[in-house]
């Protein structure tokens, strides 16, 4: 599967970066409320670096991981002080840090086809081990029913347009998005296509998996004023402080 090639990465950045931007004030408050005012934050599925930029501006050190080279290229330009790597978030080595974040549906994507609940449990263990005592893991996942009412959609901007065809398989809990995209280059529009598949997870199984590795878990309805994407739920998982 394609993972946000150059044109779709551009469209996602200019057309859909507002979720990360609008989430930033609430996320920063969550970090501060948990006593995390400085240190390294690792962003899994960092995309074009919108959230990483807000973290850097707030005084945190930032490391970002994304499977899309095009996204990482934009993130490096946006946040020159950050450390950005092209890798699968399921297997990438995680440095010691004060927080790990993953906005949107990054943990659902099947760009790495090994993604399943067992792999996520292994990721949760690696996140737990990477976090310093008192550190937090804040992330979202898409649940079964994410595709409800989304069979076909159309979005457009001044120099781009995308057509989405969405299908959810309720037997396998997989969501498929067929994406036809157009980006203006000079006087003409360049056409491309990508197919994205996501594995959908129930919040109860995610919460159990987090607790099984030692996290204290809370679900979130919003990041401050920014509500969750329809069909998604967010978690704040906290590693206990050392006694």
Brief digest:
The protein is 28% helix and 37% strand. Strand 11 and strand 12 (226-227) form a beta hairpin. It has 243 residues and is an alpha/beta fold.
Describe the fold and architecture.
The protein has 2 domains: 6-143 and 201-238, 3-Layer(aba) Sandwich (Rossmann fold); 152-198, N-terminal domain of TfIIb. It contains 6 helices and 13 strands. It has helices at 6-16, 18-33, 50-57, 69-78, 117-130, 203-212; strands spanning 40-44, 61-66, 83-86, 97-102, 131-142, 152-157, 160-169, 174-185, 188-199, 216-220, 222-223, 226-227, 232-238. It is globular, with a radius of gyration of 17 Å. The relative contact order is 0.17. The model has no long low-confidence stretch (mean pLDDT 96).
H/E element string? HHEHEHEEHEEEEEHEEEE
Q: What share of the residues lie within helices?
A: 25-40%
- Please give the radius of gyration in angstroms: 17 Å
Terminal CA distance reads 46 Å
Q: Summarize model confidence as the mean pLDDT.
A: 96
Give the amount of beta strand, in percent: 35-45%
User: Looking across the biggest beta sheet, what order are the strands in?
Assistant: 3-2-1-4-5-13-10
CATH superfamily of the largest domain: Vaccinia Virus protein VP39
Shape field: globular
- The number of helical elements comes to 6
**Main sheet summary:** 7 strands, mixed
Structural class: alpha/beta
The CATH topology assignment of the largest domain is Rossmann fold
- Low-confidence spans: none
């Amino acid at each position: 599967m394609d993972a946000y090639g150059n044109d779709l990465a551009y469209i996602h950045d200019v057309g859909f970066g507002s979720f990360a931007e609008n989430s930033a004030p609430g996320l920063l408050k969550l970090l501060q409320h948990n006593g995390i005012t400085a240190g390294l934050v690792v962003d899994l599925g960092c995309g074009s670096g919108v959230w990483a930029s807000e973290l850097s501006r707030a005084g945190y050190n930032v490391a970002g991981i994304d499977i899309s080279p095009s996204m990482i290229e934009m993130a490096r330009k946006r946040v020159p002080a950050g450390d950005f790597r092209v890798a699968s978030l399921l297997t990438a080595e995680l440095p010691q840090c004060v927080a790990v974040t993953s906005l949107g549906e990054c943990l659902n994507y099947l760009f790495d086809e090994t993604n399943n609940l067992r792999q996520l449990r292994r990721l949760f263990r690696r996140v737990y081990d990477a976090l310093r005592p008192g550190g937090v893991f804040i992330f979202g996942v898409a649940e079964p029913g994410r595709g409800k009412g989304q069979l076909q959609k159309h979005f457009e901007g001044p120099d781009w347009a995308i057509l989405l065809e969405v299908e959810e398989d309720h037997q396998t809990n997989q969501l498929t998005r067929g994406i036809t995209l157009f980006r203006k280059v000079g006087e003409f529009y360049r056409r491309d296509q990508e197919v994205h598949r996501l594995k959908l997870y129930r919040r109860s199984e995610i919460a159990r998996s987090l607790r099984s590795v030692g996290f204290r878990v809370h679900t979130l309805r919003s990041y401050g004023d920014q509500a969750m994407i329809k069909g998604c739920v967010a978690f704040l998982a906290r590693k206990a402080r050392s006694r």
